[in-house]
Each structure stands twice: as C-alpha cells, then as structure tokens.
Amino acid sequence: MDFNQSADENLFDHARIIGKPHTRVDGALKVTGTAPYAYERHNVAENPLVGYPLGSSIAKGRITRMDATAARSAEGVAAVITALDIDELPRADSNVAKLFGGEWVEHYHQAIAVVIADTLEQARAATRLIEVEYEEIPGEFDLDDAWKRLQDRDVVSHVGDVDAAFDSAEFTLDETYHTASHSHAMMEPHATIADWCDGKNMTLWTSNQMIEWTRQALATTFELDADNIRLESPYIGGGFGGKLWLRADAVLAALGSRETGRPVKVALPRPFIFNNATHRSGTVQRLRIAANKDGRITAFDHSAISHTLPGGSGEDAVNQTRCFYAGENRRVAHHAIDMNLPESADMRAPGEATGLAVLEIAMDEMAEKLGMDPVEFRILNDTQVNPEEPSKRYSDRHFVECLQKGAETFGWAARNTTPGGKREGQWLIGQGMAGAYRGSPTLDSGARVRLSEGRLIVETDMTDIGTGSYTIIAQTAAETMGLEMRDVDVRLGNSAYPSASGSGGQMGAASSTAGVYAACVALQGEITKRLGVESARFENGQVVSGDKSVALRDVAQGEELVGEDSLHFGDFKDELEIGTFGAHFVEVAVNAYTGETRLRRMLSVCDAGRILNPITARSQVLGGMTMSIGAALTESLNVDTARGFFPNHDLAGYEIAVHADIPDMEVIFLDTQDGASTPLKAKGVGELGICGGAAAVANAMYNATGIRLRDYPLTLDRMLDRLPGA
Amino acid sequence: MKAFSYERIDDAAQAAARAFEVPGSKFIAGGTNLLDLMKHEIEVPAHLIDINGTGLDDIVATDEGGLRIGALVSNTALGADERIKRDYPVLSRALFAGASSQLRNKASTGGNLLQRTRCPYFYDPAMPCNKREPGAGCAALDDGADTRQLGVIGTSDHCIATHPSDMAVALRVLDAEVETVSPEGQTRRLTLDEFYALPGDTPEVENALEPGEIITGVVLPAPVGGRQRYYKVRDRASYAFALVSVALIETDDGKGRVALGGVAPKPWRREDADAELGNGAEAVMAKLLDGARPTEENAYKLTLAERTLAALLAKE
After folding, report:
1. Which of A308, A333, A505, A601 has CA atoms 20 to 30 A from the CA of A169?
2. Residue A221: pLDDT above 80?
C-alpha cells in the first residue's frame, strides 16, 4: 500500500478498539515469568553449551600474545576461541566497533576471547585462566580536552546572518554546558542462543530490536547468504537503542556453535553492557541565543561535540535546535570526535535528549534575562513552519496547547518566581518547565495476516521491547477486520515474517501498525474477491456487502486466507515537518544544607497524534520521563581519563532512578491526529518523554536555589558551596 | 567463580577451628556480598563454611544493661527489633538506610561488618588494586581516575577505598563492641575502632581478625539515650552507598557523639571531635576531618560532612 498523501477521514476516526485503553495482551506472560526471553528459551535448542566472554583490559593497543592452554584443559570446557585464532570479522555498516577477531584492541572490554563450557560457572572460571599480553597505545579519552582544542567545528547549517544578529541584539546569552555519557542499562542484558552447528544454516534466538538489520549484519559478518539465517526475538527485556545492532553476544554464540557443533548461549555480563556494548556519548555544548526586548528570538548559535570511535557519528545534540523555535538567523555545528572509548551510538532520543537538556536550560536563562515567564517566552517563539526552510510547514503542531494545558494543570501561575524564595523547613522548593520536541519519522513496514475459521494471526518481524507492540498491533488488526481483540493472535520478532520497521527512533508504533493495516486491507481484498463482491464493510465479525452478510469465519470454508503487504511512506512527507511535542512541568525540593535533590511531582503534556492505546502510551511517556530524571540527577558513565573506560560499570555504580526517586507523575495526551503521519494518524511516543525532561528538573532546581547548574548530572557537589544552609 | 568445597558447621568455635585448619576458608552467612565477589573472582575461597546453623541469631539483654546481638541476626530483624528502635534508634535508622529490603533480609550482622569496599577499581579484576593483590598498585590513585565516591581521610598512598557499611557507623557512635571466638575457643571483644584497620601499606588487611577467628556477635552497652539521628546523603533516594553519612547522638547536657560514614576506610570518629559538638558543625569537623587528603573529585565530601552535621544540629 502506498501512502502518498495525508489520510482523510477513515475508519480510525470512528474506532471501536484503536485509541481505547487495553491492557497489554502479553501482560499475563510477563508477570507470570512465562514470556520466553532469549537466554531462557530452554526448549528451542537441544542441550546447549554456555559461552562466557573475556574482555580486553586495555583501551587501545595490540594483543601480542594469548595463551589459552590452561583454559582449554579446564573442567567442562568444550572450546576456547581467542581473538588471535581468527581474522577480524567483516564489519556490517551498522557496526562501528569491531565485534571480534584480530590483534587490534580499540576499546576497553572489547571481546577478545570466549570460553564455551558445559556450565556458566565453568566457562566464567576458565576465562580467568587465559593469559593475555598487550602492547598498549596511548589513547584519547577526555572530551573536555578535545573541546578546548577544537577549532574547526563542522557547520551543519547556517541561515541568515548569525553574527550580525548577535551584534544587533538587545539581549544575548552565551553559555557552555556538559552532558554525561549514558548507558541503556536495560534489565535484560544482550543475550543469544545460537545454532550454527553445521556452519551453514544459522538460527539465533536473541534479544534484538531490529530483526532484518541484524540478519543482514550477520550475513555480512559471517559472509553468509542472509537466506540461511533465521532470527527470533519475540520478547525483549528493554533495549532503549542498545539492541538495535548485532553485538558480541550473538557473534560469540555463533562462533562457539560452529566450533563445537552444538548450540551455544551467551549473555553479556553486566559490566559488558557499559563498556562492551554501545552507550550514549557525553557532550560539550555552547549555546548562544539572541533576542529583542519584545522577547522574539532573532538568532540561535549552537555548537556541540561528542565522542565516537572512528567511523561513528556520535551524539548529535544540535539538530533539534534547527527548527524547534522561531528565529531568522541560525547556525548549528556538531563535531563527533574520534576517541578511544567504547562505541557511542543511539540511545532513546539520540541527540534530542542531550540537545534539549541544554537548549531548554538556555531558554529558561533567556526568559529570565528578558524578564519573561518561561512559558510565555516559548509561546511567543513558537513556529508553525521550519524556520530554516519556511516553505516546510509542520503537519500538525500543538506545542502551544501543550504549554498552556500543562501550565493550567500544574498550577504554574501560582508558583514562586523568585529563585531561592520558597523554603519548607530545610528544603528549598522550586518549579520549572521545559519544552519537548522529537521528530516522528516512519519506516516502510510489512506484515502478513492469516484468517482461518474466524481467527486472525498477524505475523511481522516488528519487535516489542516492552513498549506494547503486541497490543497495538492486535488493536489495529481487530479494528480493521471488524474482529474483537480476542480473535487476534500477534506473532512478532521472527525473520520468517515480513519485515517491519522494528523498534527504534520512535518509529515503531506508527510504522508497524500502518503495515498491519496494509496487510489487513490486502486480506480484505482476498475476501471480497472470494465473495465476488466489489467492496465490503468489515464489522462485528461479519463481511457486509450491500444486503449480503457473511461471517468472517465462514468466508474461506475451512481454508486459510492470507493477506500480505507493506505500507510504503511516500515522498510527500519530505515536504513537511512531522514531529511530536510536549511540555514538562516539575517540582523539586533541594536540601538547603546538603544539596540533595528530590523530585516531588512531574507533569508532561504530549501532542503525539492519535494515541493508539492510552495505557501503553502512558507507560512509554512515564518511562521517558523517568529516564530524564536519571539523566538530570544521577546518570553518568564516569570516564577514567587515564585508562579510557567507564569504571562505574554496574548497576550499583551507574545510578538509574529507583522507585523512591519517582513520586507523583502525570501524563496528559492532547486529542490530536496527524493524517500526514500514517493512515492511523498516529505518531511515536517512545522518545518524547525523555526529551526536555532533564532541563525541566534543572530549571526547577534553579527556581529552588537560585543556583544555575549547566553540567549534568546535577549532583550536589556542583552547588554545595553556594547553598544557604540555615 | 573458582570451584570450592562447602560444609556446614553448627558451632562457632568449631567453625573457627575448622577455618584455621583448612587453608583458604571463608565463612558464609547471608552471602550477599561474598557471592558477588566470588563471581568476579575477587574472593576466591577454596572452602566455604556455612555458619547459618550456629544459632547466633538472637538478641539478648546483657548483665550490663545492654544487648548482645548474634552475628547471624539479619539486618531486617535487627533494624525492626523493638528494643533497638526504642533504645538505639540510630542503629535502626542506619540499617534501614542501607541496601534494599531483599538484601537486608539476607544480610547478617557479622557479614555487614565484614563487607568489602565498593571502590570501582576493587570491583574490576582487570584493574590494579592493592587490596586484591598486594603490591599491584592502585588504579584509583592515578590521575584521571574516578574517585568521587572514594575516601578522604584515613586513607594511604596505597588505598583510598571507603568502608561501605551504614550499620557500622551507628555501632561506632554507640560504642558497640565486636565479640569473637578464636580457633582455640577464646572469646574477646574489640571496639569498632580496634576492630577495623586503616590501610597504611597493607590495605588487604581490613580488620583485626586472626586466622580462623569468627565474629559471634556485637555487644551494645547500656542505652545512652539522647536524640539519635542517622543522615545518609546519596545522589538517589534509595539503594545507593553513602556519599557521606552522619551518625549523631545529642544528649540533654549538650554533649554528644558523631561518627561519619562514606569518608574513610572505617567508621570515622574522634572523641576530641565529639567534645566540640557544643561549638557547632564547623568546630566538630575541624577536628574530625583534620588531616584529610581528598582528591579533586571528592573534596566536596569535607563540605558535605560539615553541612550534613549542621543540618542535623539545626533546630528547624
């Protein structure tokens, strides 16, 4: 199905099931521990061995010697494969860091060996018996050093005359900010069971957000025909972008299986999640804003750097500054610095989360300079067109309504406007807000639907990373076919199924439901053809054409009818800006003596098109908000700038928000539809919640204390000396 | 994890004798820290002696008017004990500030005292650490290291790790004593100050226990009353080790005691600092933190300790 123009009024505007609050269809499996996650799929492969990786203990250099003699003769060990045993594996375009093989080490905890044994304990113990010698090469690990040195920042775009605008502006801001590197820190580590016993046909039971990308990456890495590779990833214990790619778990399990002729399972040990897998790069950002005294912004100048291994793209923190707010003159530059830390790559709202964490502090600072309310300042500088390219309008943008609804619901008008001016006992109370913006791209997405005796099976390689894909896909199929939720089985995450968008970039919900809709329409075509009618309505389990009505379970008379199609998104979208918008409002308490900061409440108002399921969508936004609290207050992959790695590589040292950090949270969805996005008029919500949330916390802390922090995480040591105490 | 042998011994003195006899022995009670360390091969015991059957799991009154806490009393049971909550509230508060409820249910009193540091370099076997491997060097002391959580006082040129226990800080301020039995069946009592060692040039030696010697309990002296507080400062609201913690007892005569956690290789207290309590937080810390050697990254702990005490002393 081609989607070449904005959707007109359609069945989803009169929905029975779409847009209604359905609890997740896989919920019972999840809470009873019976949803099969990759490492626990005990019935898929006969008698698997267990692999355990050894990571490099240096950040950069060459392995000069490896001796695995003792490991090979250890109890229970079936095989040891070292990096020196095989050539460097070919790298797929989607991988930046090398995953295995060869003498060169390019980051700490790069996998340099895997031990395959009968048990996890045996494999783990034997890895410690492998002797490794290195020739270490000095590396570069300090982003601040790079920032100081950097002269030639890449200009991404420049419209108008930014320098002239700053020269003539009545008010200007020029500040530098830091964001920390972040780990996805998902509950389920990367894990794979691989069966490549014959060295020809490979089956992987894994935990991966993007089935087809990863199948192709495996084909490249192992020089196989992709048709000989099968992937299953039906349940995923969190990904956040960390499982978009082929990673070492799958590579080592596959190599181990080929070597031993038996299935092999490998889960990355927790420290590997931080230093072997990918992470979000920290950034240094300089942001300048110019405005006239009426509060209208005349110029933005935003430059940033992030780190990457050679060949990667880092964390682009400036992109959303190009078009979130109005202003005639604008310049952004991003430089991804080649450094020797582990691979930085996408994490929930890549770029936006870190860029808005800074832009939205700067907006607060600018509002204060102008003597304006920060909500009013944002409303005044709203735009309905891309300010870089004014011919490009926003398809459906209700940012102002988000701000207004949020301010009203939160009680913004009643807030204390004097920073440091509200105290309850030993606690300073502050309120702050920030805007949220995340583009809402879509990706062509396919599905197959099979109707047999009134039951519908949906098959697509779309994944559910805890987001609710199973549920919204069942809703879409039931809605389109005139069935009930209970009549639909959804099967996901299998490379045998038609290729879908996968889960990433806030694209999955909108794209995959559109693909399922296309497949259902194809099935409807099969059905009407079978019935010999021109057109029909599908309602109440019936096919209705004129005065003729046939139950869906009877149309095929015992046969199975199949519809398969993909939704292809047309070029017309390129002429539009399609995005999601939000406003966060936060209240914090900061201890006047110790600087401990505790969130008191948070409200997010979201404009994200049609909300397919308010329960699962709310969970997505809550998750994003929660992650933004972590980014604001605690999360930081600390860099050992001498040794070049993240030493706090466990969940005790890398502090994500815990339940006690997350009190009263509220999400409001505006009732909007965006026909330019998909036939369902839906957009993404998976990443909107994290965008801007950290800045709302920062701004609330400023309101509480009068101390402006510009470096994340906003920990107490950054302000202790300036707090009032008594 | 290295392969190990395992046995249960249901008498403390016999367990001590056995541990002395078998090289590489370790006692296991709750195992909340030891098992983690064994998985990383930071601890590599050849033999585990399970002491959970020794019956050291009650809290009884002493003739001196105090309480004797068995080494196996769980952190949960101890923190919730009515006598502890009434007469030693600083201890109850410290216990519930630590770990998570699941860990507190398993963790024992003796094990809590013996938990190892949370220094990230200690926890990473690929990094040089004098505690793990005497003479290997200390990655935390190198330029560029991540030291924000590490110690500021009582540290040495060989180790700047902190002791992570909350419970021990409260026990220190209560003048509790650790009771042990030796392989020969001799019992002795040590103050917390005597029990814990400073790293000096032997950071692998963390306490005064002799080979085989086992903790049988902790003895609390008669209640001292007063206003008892435990203030644990951390970045997130729960489930994190202290950046700084302060255990405070203020008695009605304006005197009192202060101990710090999160700053040193042992619960940190000085009697001459206690004597300054009437003069305010700054005066106390001038004594208590005299000789501190912070890193650039953790110098904030000095300010934080003073401010945390000031918060406790403030009448608001």
Report:
1. A333
2. yes
**Per-residue confidence (pLDDT) for residue A61, from 0 to 100:** 98
Q: How many CB pairs under 8 A join A and B?
A: 116
Would you call A720 and B300 a contact, using CB atoms and an 8 Å cutoff?
yes
- Residues B130-152 have pLDDT tens digits of 999 999 999 999 999 999 999 99
The strands making up B47-50's β-sheet, listed across from edge to edge, are: B5-8, B47-50, B25-28
Q: What is the pTM of this model?
A: 0.98
Tell me the residue type at A575: E
> How far apart are the CA of A648 and the nearest CA of chain B, in angstroms?
6
Q: How is domain A372-440+578-722 classified at the CATH fold level?
A: Aldehyde Oxidoreductase; domain 4 (3.30.365)
- Percent of chain B past pLDDT 70, that is, above it, reads 100
For residue A425, the Cα-to-chain-centroid distance in whole angstroms is 40
B231, closest residue in chain A (CA to CA): A594
The boundaries of every CATH 3.30.365.10 domain in chain A are 2-35+442-572, 372-440+578-722
User: Which residues are CB-contacts of A587 (< 8 A; sequence separation ≥ 6)?
Assistant: A429, A430, A431, A599, A600, A601, A602, A700
Instruction: State the pLDDT at residue A533.
Output: 95
Residues of chain B with pLDDT under 70: none
- Per-residue model confidence as pLDDT tens digits over A389-436: 999 999 999 999 999 999 999 999 999 999 999 999 999 999 999 999
Q: Which CATH architecture has domain A2-35+442-572?
A: 2-Layer Sandwich (3.30)
Does the annotation count A560 as an active-site position? no
Three-state secondary structure along A123-183? HHHHHCCCEEEEEECCCCCCHHHHHHHCCCCCEEEEECCHHHHHHHCCEEEEEEEEECCEC
Q: What is the pLDDT of residues A134-189, one digit of tens each?
A: 999 999 999 999 998 886 666 778 999 999 999 999 999 999 999 999 999 999 99
CB contact under 8 A, A125 and B121: no
| Nearest residue in chain B measured CA to CA from A657 | B236
